[in-house]
Write a structure and sequence with these properties.
Oligomer: single chain
Radius of gyration: 32 Å
Length: 465
Amino acid sequence: MSARPVVTRFAPSPTGFLHIGGARTALFNWLFARHHGGKYLVRIEDTDRARSTQPAIDAIIDGLDWLGISGDEPPVFQFDRAGRHAEVAEQLLAKGQAYRCFLTPEELATRRAAAQAERRPFRLTSEWRDRDAPAEARPFVVRIKAPTEGETVIDDLVQGRVTVANAELDDMVLLRSDGSPTYMLAVVVDDYDMQVSHVIRGDDHLNNAFRQLTIVRAMRWEEPSYAHIPLIHGPDGAKLSKRHGALGVDAYRDEMGILPEALVNYLLRLGWGHGDDEIFAREQAIEWFDLDHVGKSPSRMDWKKLENLNGHYIREADDARLAKLIEHKLGISDKGLDLLIRAMPEIKARAHDLNALADGARFLFEQRPLTLDPAAAALLTPDSRVLLATTKAAFAALRAWTLEAIEAAVRQVAEETGQKLGKIAQPLRAALTGRTTSPGIFDVLLHLGQGESIARIDDQLEPTE
């Protein structure tokens, strides 16, 4: 580990939502900085003006906030620093480490077509690398003078030692013909100015690292340490795409009902491990995380595992917090919110996501008479309605509506009628909730209250009763 202070950065392009893979990269950067007592920064790489949008910027920042991994300082916007990027290109020209290339687009297209016809990689060799500018004014780009001999070695903190022959590196463009800086230049300059010590990103950027190092070394800047993380794949082993399901963090929150702590825990285990541990408090993750145990192979999404993990965090979550998260799904008042909070310990016991949590609580707020699902309606036979009438009478006689009194009343009905408890509980659940599954029947009765419970039973009895 370098002795320099640890500074990491997450640098998304704002062309869409916060991708689930980007969220994991941000998380690894955040954890690494926290583990080493360093700084974690966010840089919005918005140099692609045609595709960068404010809604995408908002979505990225909102997603990071939701996950609890916002930057330690306000975000840096790359486009705002274009003047600084161009300044470094001019310095490289002055050092003789870059040159003005006057090749026309047509000349480049001809050389590219020739390489394609000969089935060889296109690597530009520009005659302007060591030539003076032409006498007449002509458009030009500024290119780096990449090394042509030897090799470049990166001791990657995840991939290990990776070597590329310098003959494979091209003289990439630093400034376009309109004077605007390229992404490759901007990234290097921004990392240097932000004092980034560790570049932790997806392994699809590994090839970029070798090209970006040519700028770092030409400027004689201290080199960052690199860590290139394998990408996330779908369950079938192919690169994660729309056909596999949700890609944006917002979909996990808004559509799938995932809690942020569950998604953070899942993403942490997606490519990193600490023995057999599966569930991590954030403090544990900070204490244990380092790059040593990041795998070299792609990880596969497992939605069932995420669902189970989310169920764990729902059961651990504060009841009032959960109620606030789902109240809009139920359209309830403050009075309804109080009821939801009281009932939450029983409702959350079986839910794996916030959608299921809201669905499990819906019976509390149904309008009478309830619409029963077919399976529940099938339970209300003539014989079961007789039992319901007897049970309703027992409930009406209760002076105290407590869990103990409710249970005693139901058990007394079972004893007097010679029925098993389930024979009474099943039609009772159908009448009270309109479904065949719910929290424990005594809890359902307690939270609905004596009057509402009796009224719902009454709705399902034969008119003659």
